[in-house]
Amino acid sequence: MITDKIRPHHLERKALLYVRQSSAHQVLHNRESSALQYAMRDRLTALGWLEIEVIDDDLGRSAAGGVQRAGFERMVAEVCLGKVGAVCAREVSRFARNSRDWQQLIEMCRVVDTVLVDQETIYAPRHGNDRLLLGLKGSLNEYELDLLRQRSLSARYEKARRGELVVSAPVGFVKAGDRYEKDPDRRVQEAITLVFDKVQELGSARQALCWFHEHDIDLPVKQNNGDTSWRRPNYATIHRMIDNPIYGGAYAYGKTAAASEYSADGVRLKIRRKARTDWLALMPNAHEGYVSWERAEAIRKMLSSNVPTGRHHGAPKHGDALLAGLIRCNRCGRKLTLKYTGAKHGIPRYSCSRAWMDNGAPHCIAFGGLRVDDAIENALLTVVGPGAIAATTAAEKEAGQRRDQVREVLGRDLEAARYAADLAFRQYDAADPANRLVAGELEARWNRALTHVAEVETKIAAHDAAMPVASVDPLALSLLALDLKTVWSAPTTDARLKKRIVRTIIHEVVADIDNATAEIVLVIHWMGGVHSEMRLPKRRRGQRNSTSVDVITAVRQLMLIAKDDLIAGILNRNGLKTGNGNRWTRERVTSLRSNYRIPVFKPAEDGIEPWLNLNNAAKLLQIAPKALRLAAEAGEIEAIHPLPDGPWIFARVALTTSAARSITERARHNPRHPAGSDPDQQSLFSSST
Questions:
Q1: What burial letters (b/e) apply to 438-448, b meaning 16+ CB within 10 Å?
Q2: In the predicted model, what is the mean pLDDT of residues 671-680?
Q3: How far apart are CA 229 and CA 459, in angstroms?
Q4: 658 class by beta-carbon count within 10 Å (0-12 exposed, 13-18 middle, 19+ buried)
Q5: 563 contact partners, CB below 8 Å, separation of at least 6
Q6: What is the pLDDT of residues 172-215, one digit of tens each?
Q7: Residues 192-209, buried b or exposed e (16+ Cβ, 10 A)?
């Protein structure tokens, strides 16, 4: 008989009644199931137990093994101590729905000789047949739970594939049956639209966040109870909006997956994001979005490319290098590393050093970035030049229609604050004045609402006072369109804006160095699939700021007859600049001579100069300077002419040759061209040539 399994020593120990419901919803609504489980106490009393303890600590907890059950652990602990004669439940599936907990309970009951009691029978784990039956029931319970889960998930997934499963609505949307609808609050709608506009305008979520913080603008967030509140935005708030396809009018499901993590604190679930290709459903144009699907995807891809990885360019930064993140090594395929050098750290230098940093391999290529950036800049302006006039016309039209976005946001905030103050007043006015406990609280709320209205009005006044009246001159815009180089090189042009223009037109630049010709080879991959090659001479270190060889040669020749200040004036008259693009001064000429070891001009002690200028040479030959210059230009006499707008230099030895005497005789016997003036005639002006 069944009662033969219960021995006196079982009845001497207490019995445990285990009560459990799988979820909080069942605890609240499945009251009959709870009543039937508590009624098992009568069965234990009928079987002869006097001391019965009810364990209901696990109400609302699943027995599938994913959560910790304090009541079940306490029950197993007391069984191990040998204090329990029977453990009872309405059905054995209440104990556990997983093999680990179920087998642990059966084994402990077998060791200490404890029976299991349900509504149908009594099991003695020490009996082989009962232990086999309990094992089969545990496996069936576990399989039944998996089967129910699979059925429910299959139905859920099928509904999601049709785009009809709406679990929760993010901020800016409300649930309308099996679809999403935009929040009817116009303030919420305009705020979310402003997020997308600012991210697209500024090029990154970080810059948009800084803009919102700079103007002290709050964004809506949805609370756990479904209400919408306004808070200071953070990076995650903006990034979630851009990354969520719902705002682009698309239905999406299955974006995340739950993974179990085991630690000393127990088992916990961690949510991991899945790749878009692994989503269960993605249906564009399923409902009305805040932006179009195409625009939402373009903004999302732009933010993805801001991550500096091997496939993406990275966000534009404040540095002057145009090709940061765009240039790649032709030899190893890695991106070139950018480094700023120079006294003011303003000279870019590109180098392929990734292999050296990662694996200790040698550097591939390295070169200065100034010449490369200048060449890319010229090529870019040549491409965009024809569309400058059209772009100027569009910019003029946009400037005339541009809205003051901050002013509009503050206006909506003021409207919401005034509504809240009016609502607080109506609640206060409807209260009974005699009930001071209620009236006092409503009055304090009204005062806080009025204070908030005053704060918003102060912000609007400060903003209106700080914003100047913007005026756009169409003629000035047209003139700037004709000279893009001036606009591009202006100090006020933001480097990040220039980089965004470059990335809009150029997809990538592949660089290499031709050692045979000492040239930098650039292959430009333009947007649209067009490729072009550019070759630039490779500079040696410091060569860009060095003075031209022609200038150095001219200084070597001019120092034969002139001092440093006079040489500086001659160089400036010919439009020559230093290596840094500055005008020449006496100090700079002296520094140049010292650097290249050019001796200084010193007058001869005996007055007989070995080198003469044009006037002194003509005076020595007693002919007109014009006659001597014409002869020098014709090559009849040896002379040096370093610069086009500069002096002629004659060697005293060359003036004693037969060629010089022939020129002198011809000039003196030519009645149309007199030989020159009287040597004793004085001049009002001293010549430097």
A1: ebeebbebbee
A2: 51
A3: 20
A4: exposed
A5: 600, 601
A6: 999 888 889 999 999 999 999 999 999 988 888 888 999 999 88
A7: bebbbebbbebbbbbbbb
Q: What is the pLDDT of residues 85-119, one digit of tens each?
A: 999 998 888 888 888 888 888 999 999 999 999 98
- Report residue 552 as tokens: 């150095």
Which tens digits make up the pLDDT trace of 556-607? 999 999 999 999 999 999 989 888 778 999 999 999 998 888 999 888 888 8
Q: How far apart are CA 637 and CA 629, in angstroms?
A: 9
CA 55 vs CA 7, 49, 138, 226, 683: distances in Å: 23, 16, 21, 36, 126
* CA 666/CA 470 separation, integer angstroms: 75
Please list the residues that pair with 349 across neighbouring strands.
Answer: 339, 368
Query: Could you say which of 22, 34, 93, 204 is catalytic?
Result: 22
Interatomic CA distance for residues 49 and 14, integer angstroms = 7
Sign of the Cα pseudo-torsion (242, 247, 252, 256, in order): positive
- DSSP letter, residue 521: E
| 521 vs 331: CA distance, rounded Å | 12
With b for 16 or more beta-carbon neighbours within 10 A and e for fewer, the 124-155 pattern comes to bbeeeebbeebeebbeebbeebeeeeeeeeee
3-state secondary structure of 432: coil
Per-residue exposure over 336-373, b if at least 16 CB sit within 10 Å of its own CB, e if not: bbbeeeeeeeebbbbbbbbbeeeeeeeebbebbbbbbb
Which residues are within 8 A (CB) of 250 and not within 5 positions of it... i.e. 6 or more apart?
282, 283, 284, 285, 286, 289, 293, 296
| Burial grade of 60 (CB within 10 A; 0-12, 13-18, 19 or more) | middle
Is 168 a catalytic site residue?
no
- CA pair distance 637, 453, nearest whole angstrom: 93
Residue that the structure tokens 């306490």 belong to: 74
Give the pair of three-digit tokens for residue 126: 């020490």
The whole-angstrom distance between residue 391's C-alpha and the CA centroid of its chain comes to: 27
pLDDT tens string 13-40: 999 999 988 888 888 888 888 899 999 9
Q: For residues 612 and 637, give the distance between their C-alpha atoms in angstroms, rounded to a whole number.
A: 14
Q: Please give the Cα distance from 687 to 649 (Å, whole number).
A: 14
pLDDT bracket for residue 1 (50, 70, 90): very low
Pairing of strands 649-651, 611-613: antiparallel
CB of 475 within 8 A of CB of 482? no
Count helices and strands in the chain by DSSP H and E runs: 25, 22
DSSP letter for each residue of 106-161: HHHHHHHT-EEE-SS-EE-TTSHHHHHHHHHHHHHHHHHHHHHHHHHHHHHHHHHH
407: tokens are: 């002013």
The DSSP-derived string for 79-94 is HHTT-EEEEE-SSGGG
Q: How far apart are CA 176 and CA 246, in angstroms?
A: 14
User: Which residue from 587, 592, 610 is spatially nearest to 553, judged by alpha carbons?
Assistant: 592
Q: 613 with 601: CB under 8 angstroms?
A: no
